[in-house]
């Protein structure tokens, strides 16, 4: 399959690129610089130095490809990009895999694809764009990842200590985060693309839901782990980011396993952080 991919030089997108190539797909990716283009080529993809906000380029690439995967989701990108891709793909069998996020579902101890949406201010911008995707007659799927980790990156790296300086929790650390390794996540993108059916959301979560304190203790490597007040976290991280990280979220990812045949195999977040140096 010839796949048009966005975000191929980013954290999630670069892993998706590797997975697509491994599964035998031909990838064309938009990037913003010659340096990033070389990274894509080194990974086995074809790179174009263009702007993902250029709707003429996006429309042409969507027409030329057999499917589209959008990992460069952002408030300033999505409105025009989503409309352009949906316009190009509607009435065709070509799949469109869009990127969402677990924050969309707010506080919950049992998040599923049928859960009500209740996003924090940080990601409220996703709502109108995802509504367009879900209302389209095109073959769309929104992959909504949990907290992504792996390959030495992702939000949990904020808890990696040096054995000396303190590692600060977000709040008291009692809230749980639902998690997914970036390479397991990439495999789910490939499965969603190959499945090629309209399926609303599919939640990318391995069922591993540690507390923030457990996460920090796994990554501290001897550094003292220190709780702080909600107000202190909001001041340190910014109110919107802190409020998102203070949410309690648990998810099993059962639909991804049963409907897509997804089988996560990478280390859990706690294992990943314990091995991080």
Relevant terms:
277 residues, alpha/beta, seven-stranded parallel β-sheet, two-stranded parallel ribbon, 19% strand, globular
Short synopsis of the structure:
The chain is α/β, with parallel strands linked by helices. It is built from eleven helices and 13 strands.
Overview of this structure, please?
The protein has 277 residues and is an alpha/beta fold. The chain contains eleven helices and 13 strands. The protein has a seven-stranded parallel β-sheet with strand order 3-2-1-4-5-7-11, with helices on both faces. A two-stranded parallel sheet has the order 6-13. Helix 1 links the parallel strand 1 (2-6) and strand 2. The chain is globular.
Please write out the topology.
Layout: E1 2-6, H1 11-22, E2 26-31, H2 34-42, E3 46-49, H3 55-64, E4 67-70, H4 78-89, E5 95-99, E6 108-111, H5 126-135, E7 139-145, E8 147-149, E9 167-168, E10 179-181, H6 182-195, E11 201-204, H7 212-219, E12 225-226, H8 230-237, H9 239-245, E13 249-251, H10 254-260, H11 269-274
Parallel strand pairs: 1-2, 1-4, 2-3, 4-5, 5-7, 6-13, 7-11, 8-10, 9-12
Helix pairs in contact: 1-6, 3-4, 4-5, 8-9
């Amino acid at each position: 399959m010839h796949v048009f991919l966005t975000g191929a030089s980013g954290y999630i997108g670069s892993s998706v690129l590797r997975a697509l190539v491994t599964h035998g797909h031909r990838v064309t990716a938009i990037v913003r610089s010659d340096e990033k283009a070389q990274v894509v080529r080194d990974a086995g993809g074809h790179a174009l130095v263009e702007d993902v906000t250029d709707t003429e380029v996006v429309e042409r690439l969507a027409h030329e490809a057999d499917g589209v995967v959008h990992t460069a989701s952002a408030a300033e990108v999505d409105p025009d990009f989503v409309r352009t891709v949906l316009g190009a793909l509607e009435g065709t069998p070509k799949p469109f895999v869009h990127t969402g996020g677990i924050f969309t579902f707010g506080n919950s101890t049992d998040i599923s694809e049928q859960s009500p949406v209740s996003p924090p201010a940080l990601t409220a911008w996703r709502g109108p764009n995802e509504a367009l995707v879900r209302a389209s007659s095109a073959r769309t799927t929104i992959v909504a990842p949990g907290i992504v980790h792996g390959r030495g990156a992702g939000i949990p790296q904020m808890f990696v200590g040096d054995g000396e300086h303190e590692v600060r929790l977000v709040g008291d650390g009692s809230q749980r985060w639902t998690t997914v390794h970036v390479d397991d996540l990439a495999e789910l993108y490939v499965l969603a693309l190959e499945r090629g059916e309209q399926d609303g959301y599919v939640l990318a979560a391995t069922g591993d839901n540690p507390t923030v304190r457990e996460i920090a203790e796994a990554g501290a490597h001897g550094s003292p782990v220190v709780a702080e007040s909600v107000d202190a976290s909001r001041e340190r991280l910014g109110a919107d980011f802190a409020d998102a990280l203070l949410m309690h979220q648990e998810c099993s990812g059962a639909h991804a396993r049963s409907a897509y045949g997804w089988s996560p195999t990478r280390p859990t977040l706690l294992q990943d952080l314990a091995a991080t140096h």
